[in-house]
From TrEMBL, chains A, B:
Official protein name in the record: Aminotransferase
Domain (Aminotransferase class I/classII large): residue spans on this chain: 51-391
Family affiliation: Belongs to the class-I pyridoxal-phosphate-dependent aminotransferase family.
Organism: [Clostridium] ultunense Esp
Transferase recorded as keyword: yes
Keywords carried by this UniProt record: Aminotransferase, Pyridoxal phosphate, Transferase
Length: 407, 407
């Protein structure tokens, strides 16, 4: 029956017939724990340790006990949650969104991102995607029959946008740009200057831009987090996808939201039930509580900062290793190209440091000499530090064996 | 920006610029209650009244209080739940599914159905869909660029499959059949004979069959519920989509599951994160409890039976109205063609009986002279009876005004 599938789908393997491991997929946490292996590869804060905020627990427990949470909410999402989100959009994103016309709740931003792109992509449409980038961005375009046009982000520019690299790749079929801001895996917070250049390019060439802001907070060192849709002329051509999974720490809740102007949203509302379906009823109640009182995210931010500094301190200065100081969130993007490929190092670290990290090649061509470390994993910072030290020591040993003495 | 969308998407309106009302969408329950209107139009048992089984509440409250439910589960679903489902598949569906290779949990069966079809459909592929049928079946094919080939189900055959009607519509582009069994809106439980004929047709013509068993229980009057994938030669070409939303009453949980043979599942596993994303973590724990102890569904079944008989008693014999006795679940499919179109009657009942039901035209061409009533709504059977009586009286009055005296 596989021969009856589209070409795009035929190449996706789920691991039933191979040893392929997808980024972020196919690990069983209990079997890893038995082997004493730490998983620093899932972008899920404090995974796998309990870390639901108490007031969110309370709100959900109440809703569940009342017994009505077994029913559907409106397919576009709980009205109160949409109203609460519209306030947040005004305060944090400088966006004036009508909760009844511009916001749709989705069961996570993975399906949200897919759905946001879907109406626009026909066979052969070209979609520009910064490389490295979240793997689903590439996969989604392929599934829809579009053509991925990777645009390299370069370490020497601190992974900011170089608009010439976009202009060089423009064709008459270019239809869309998909941007993750801040970027996963590089943690880059795109500067106002980067985004203004991108906006001008999008407007001049009449392009749609999908922006994934799953990692929009926290950003570090006083950086400005600019929402592209708030720039002049961009509201009408930008669809922004947000999530409660990362900075709010609610990955398992599966609550995300899409923000777009009325005409695009009208189509989304009209096809929401068919493609994504309604979002979990009690999760949305938990999300309301989380938005209403988001003090706890400050503690998360402080912990993420400590963890960032831990990574920089432990891995900084190791021969053959270069860590760009993370600009946001809880990931690190580490250049290990002098020591080996991302695949090789990932494998090496699993065996020698008992830590699983992500191989950079999952995030695009540009990522081949990199690994991604999720220092936001594990609630216990000592345990995390221990895992990072094991990584550091294993890399020092490798550099030593290879006779590498500087970066 | 709408001009940049695919043709299929451009026609879907969400109601922001029109008065279009989609089946099952865009009603606010609180505003209806203020107007004294009962909603018998959402396929959600006992909606909107509290009806989560106590032991399911207990399991979820425990999981949430433990605090770890904020984390992702494995994208293909909680392992324990998959194991529990494999037992159910053996006991109830006569299917031998490996929980590690043949089952995938999805956040509801709406996205599950979409996802199940997606890898197979390219532009121009023809998909046979019984008419009337669940509206998403048509919409999904259109969104994917396929061609919908409706195959009429006829009241005179009790909506069973007449394989000649499929054979007449076969072309070299026919790729797939999408079957809802039992059917929504007609409640038809397809007989072994219907399904054997369909299986033979699918095998002879090398077709994929997607079967939606959201309504697989309860079925009434000792009917046999046959799972197509269990018939000889069908496992390899059938993808079955199940849900906990209907017979198990857990709509708001968003837990459904796809069952397929290894090769198809390998592709699903490989693209799951990108298209559907993981399923809610605590809902899956609630679903395990529901599967472990499903005694409560017997009470639901008894209530559905009483409700069915209520509909037949109240609407049976009204001039110009014909109710086929529902074969399963909690819906009724009522022929009102002598009194007016489904659109007209739906409107008329909203104004004159203060009840919202679904217009049959949403379910396909064949449905134009019908309405769908969800007698499974409302926990209080007296309130339901009252609503049904208002429908009955309003229809009697209409028949009277029109001078119609028999069916
Ligand atoms: C950049 C980015 N976007 C979106 C997602 C999906 O998050 P969710 O579906 O939990 O909202 C992830 C998850 O890793 C991510 O890294
Ligand atoms: C026939 C049928 N299939 C699937 C669904 C979707 O159910 P869910 O997404 O809640 O699993 C519905 C909901 O009304 C339905 O009627």
């Amino acid at each position: 029956m596989k021969t009856k599938m589209t070409e795009a789908f035929r190449k996706y393997e789920g691991g039933l017939f191979s040893e392929v491991t997808k980024a972020d997929v196919s690990v069983s946490i209990s079997s890893l724990e038995k082997e004493g292996i730490d998983l620093l590869a899932w972008a899920d804060p404090f995974y796998p340790d309990p870390s639901t905020p108490p007031h969110v627990i309370e709100a959900m427990v109440k809703a569940i006990k009342e017994g009505g949470a077994n029913h559907y909410t409106h397919p576009i999402g709980n009205e109160e949650l949409r109203i609460r989100i519209s306030k947040k959009l005004k305060e944090y994103n400088n966006i004036d969104a009508n909760p009844h016309r511009n916001i749709m709740i989705t069961p996570g931003s993975d399906s949200g991102l897919y759905f946001a792109m879907l109406p626009f992509i026909s066979s052969g449409d070209e979609v520009m995607i910064p490389d490295p980038s979240y793997p689903n961005n590439f996969q989604n375009v392929e599934i829809m029959g579009g053509k991925v046009v990777p645009v390299p982000l370069k370490e020497e520019y601190h992974y900011q946008i170089n608009i010439n690299d976009f202009e060089d790749r423009l064709t008459s079929r270019t239809k869309m740009i998909v941007l993750t801001n801040p970027n996963n895996p590089t943690t880059t917070v795109f500067t106002r200057r980067s985004l203004e250049a991108l906006a001008q390019f999008a407007i001049e060439n009449d392009l749609i831009v999908i922006v994934d802001q799953a990692f929009e907070f926290p950003v570090f060192d006083g950086r400005e987090m600019v929402t592209l849709a708030s720039l002049e002329g961009m509201w009408e051509r930008t669809v922004t996808v947000f999530s409660t999974s990362k900075g709010m720490g609610l990955s398992g809740f599966r609550v995300a939201y899409i923000v777009a102007e009325d005409h695009i949203m009208d189509t989304y509302y009209g096809s929401a039930v068919s493609v994504v379906g309604a979002t979990n009823t009690f999760s949305q109640i938990g999300a309301i509580a989380a938005f209403d009182n988001d003090e706890y995210t400050k503690e998360m931010e402080a912990s993420f900062l400590r963890r960032r500094d831990m990574v920089c301190k432990i891995l900084g200065g190791i021969p053959g290793v270069h860590v760009e100081k993370p600009e946001s969130g809880f990931l690190s993007w580490v250049n290990i190209s002098k020591l080996g490929s991302g695949e090789f190092i990932t494998d090496y670290l699993k065996r020698n440091a008992k830590v699983i990290v992500n191989s950079g090649g999952h995030y695009g061509e540009q990522g081949k000499g990199y690994i991604r470390i999720v220092q936001g994993a594990l609630a216990d910072e000592e345990r995390l530090e221990n895992a990072l030290r094991r990584i550091g020591n294993a890399l020092i040993e490798l550099a030593d064996n290879k006779g590498i003495t500087n970066f």
